[in-house]
Amino acid sequence: MRKDINKITNNKQTNAYYLKLDIQSFFYTIDKNILYELLSEKVARLNFSQKDKEDLLWLSKKIIFHNPCTNYIQKGSLDALKKLPKNKSLFTTPPDKGLPIGNLTSQFFANVYLNEVDQFIKRKLKVKYYLRYADDMLFLSRDMEELRDIEEEVRKFLHKKLKLKIKDNKTKYASVYSGIDYLGYIVTPDYILSRDRVVNNFKKKLHYFNKGFLINRRLCMEEVVPLHDPLTQEEIEDICASVNSTFGHLKWANSFSLRQNLYRKSFGILTKYLEPQGNLESFRPRKPSP
What is the pTM of this model? Predict the structure, then answer.
């Protein structure tokens, strides 16, 4: 993204603006019939035998139109589930709408669905600087009015072709120099920072690890045992994977000082078990002392 920002600003010689659009309750409002029709059109163009095409469409139809709310295992708190907004649960959406977010196939089907708007934006509107991740869309332009025209056209296309709506309170226009909040980063022409929320959530996770939370064998109804006795190798590897997930995010930002500060001040007893790699880009379990 920084390359695009520097291109459109001519290496910070001119001003430019961005437009962020977010689709409202995207996974819960995908129209299954439209999705299946789009998929059928793509399968028809494949260089497969007729039998393979029929089998592929049969399986796709089974997955797309399956209702996960009819046969499931309840986990977690039912009261917490009831507190979800109605547009954030498949239990309250029509049977012909919505895909379960956790399914790997849903991620693929989402891209099939939104490929339609991608093609419209790139081929019909001829937008040069356009990025999309899932349902988060970002546009860059030197002309604010051009961005407003793009928003109007995209809104109309989404509604007419895909039966989707833009979330009004997430729509944002601003100068690229103010920093673009996108996918957990703040991106400017000069630097990339990780969002405060990402960092603060990670600090909380480290705190809970040090207190003995988030480690299953240490949780019981009466008490939580702090991390003063040795961890098992399995527990160390689980913690390491969790830590590396966040550090994998942080390493793409200008965050070396931040990573140093986190390691020195927030890791606590975990420094005994995790060994830094490279310039604090990741960790591996320390080898046990002989």
Answer: 0.84
